[in-house]
Write a structure and sequence with these properties.
globular, alpha/beta, Rossmann fold, six-stranded antiparallel beta sheet, 13 strands, PRTase_dom, 24% helix
């Protein structure tokens, strides 16, 4: 049996603030799912996925696999977080940031948004790219800005949107790329921050840059606690 045969179907569930208050208190260990508190009092239940090696796990948000009802509930929260940074342009960190960046831009009344990407089209300029990896996809890849979109970001206050920030490498690459194109990147809005390793990485952009990251909720990393259960890793809450 392969690893893919062992995976249960992906499922995420959103709770209103009233429903979240009625949930039983979370224990010190978890099995199967983890429920994260969100801005405004609502909550999001996510499946736990075991990482290669078998001794660590993550609460997995797959933004392109959640029900539309979950997306509809979360989009206004991300939009409110982005609005606090007063953006003129919204840009997406690929690939999981694409759905929410589009919704945030529409929610802010903007005419369009900027989608960064990993696929190099034939007219792209390698100078408008940065190396990037993520915690869930460790293969070497690059993030690109379409040269046709440079005018859309040059001299503008840009806020990046992503679903989760973990290592911070994808965010760092996206910021550097946009700054090279002449953008003033004023912050990053995410659904969830995961652990705290990302703080030092985005700190390479300048002192206090981690304070420009606005998250709707925070999730820890997990380690095995025995009997098929998981506990938050020290220092990641």
């Amino acid at each position: 049996m392969s690893n893919t045969d062992l995976l249960t179907p992906y499922a995420a569930r959103w709770y209103t603030a009233a429903q979240a208050r009625a949930l039983p208190p979370a224990g010190p260990t978890f099995s199967g799912t983890f429920t994260v508190a969100l801005q405004g009092g609502s909550a999001l239940e996510l499946p736990l996925r075991v990482l290669p090696g078998g001794d660590k796990a993550i609460a997995l948000l797959m933004s392109n696999q959640t029900p539309f009802a979950v997306e509809d509930a979360l989009a206004p929260l991300v939009t409110a977080a982005a609005a606090s940074l007063q953006p003129e342009v919204i840009a997406a960190v690929p690939t999981m940031g694409l759905d929410y960046a589009r919704l945030v831009a529409r929610g802010l009344g903007l005419a369009d948004y900027v989608a960064l990407g990993h696929s190099r089209k034939f007219w792209y300029d390698e100078a408008l790219s940065e190396a990037a990896t993520s915690s869930t996809s460790t293969q070497g890849k690059r993030v690109y800005l379409d040269p046709a979109l440079v005018a859309r970001v040059r001299g503008k206050r840009v806020v990046l949107v992503d679903d989760v920030i973990n290592t911070g490498v994808s965010a760092l690459s996206a910021v550097r790329l946009l700054e090279r194109a002449g953008a003033e990147v004023v912050g990053l809005t995410v659904l969830l921050s995961e652990g705290h390793a990302w703080r030092a990485v985005v700190g390479e952009l300048g002192a206090g840059w981690d304070q420009r990251v606005r998250a709707v909720g925070h999730i820890p990393m997990f380690e095995a606690a025995g009997d098929g259960r998981w506990q938050p890793m020290a220092g990641t809450l």
